Amino acid sequence: MGLCMGNDIFADTSGLFAFLDKQDDMHRSAGEILREAAEKRTRFVTTDYIIDETATLLMSRDRSHLAEVLFEIILSSKACAVEWMDPDRFGRTRSLFLKHKDQKWSFTDCFSFVIMNERKIERALTKDSHFRKAGFVPLLVR
Question: What are phi and psi of 111, to 5 degrees?
Answer without folding.
Answer: -65, -40
